[in-house]
Specification:
It comes from Chromobacterium indicum. The protein has about 300 residues and is α/β, with parallel strands linked by helices. About 35% of the residues lie in helices and about 20% in strands.
Amino acid sequence: MSEAFYTDKARVRASFEKAAASYDSAAVLQREVSDRMAERLDYIKHQPVVILDAGAGTGYGSAELRRRYPQARVIELDLAHAMLQASRERGRSGDGLLKKLFKPSQPWQINADIEKLPLADASVDMIWSNLTIQWINEPDKMFAEMRRVLKPDGMLMFSTLGPDTLFELRDAFAGVDGATHVNQFIDMHDIGDALMRAGFAEPVMDMEKIALTYDDTRAVMRDLKAIGAHNATAGRGRGLMGKQAWRKVEAAYERHRRDGKLPASYEVVYGHAWKGTEKKLAKMTDDGRQVIEFVKKAPKP
């Protein structure tokens, strides 16, 4: 994998450890995408007993999963220990008086990498992963791990970011120097191919564009810092950018201003698939290739 795509995992962990306290104040996109993922569950018949939230962050998605599946055990897994601590504090603050009196057991949490899941084979019924897999380096390895821990007929549901994400910021940094300044993300069709190679059945994927707006370039960068979404590519610059170079970036970003605001665009990719059984794997072409359905989804107003 080229430096443009390769993620420095130590940098990712450190960024999210630092961002845990400020994450919820800036994670507008993450909450919106989580809500849109949850809406998709309304149309899927599945009653999981054990759910893995892979990349749980501060627990927003986990809370929805517990509300939706009150009888299920939700396991929160995240690379950053501070994120799990923030999730636990969120749960405590949301407890009513009755729950506090009876001191319920804390949710299960695992501080680990989704590319190396410390779980037994066939141990979970559903994997939920919201805006996390864009930080991994080996999609094939990750999907193989996810399939390994899923039970037969278990479901994987995820969201991630596509290559058009933050194209305005990437354009603004173009030509400033030889370093990479914005993370690169994998195309939806390549993710679908990786699912197929891992042996998932009936994969369905779709994509939509979501734009957040800001007053200036520095506000964009502040939000990215607050959620821990630093540039984590191996080819990033290691020093601070000079004032002259930064002014060039700001001037270049200004070309994208519309209606008085600067947009930060995100290409959000959604997918779900099942751990293949003989029944589910029957959806193949005549030459033995698995069929992947791509759904064109109109953006929400």
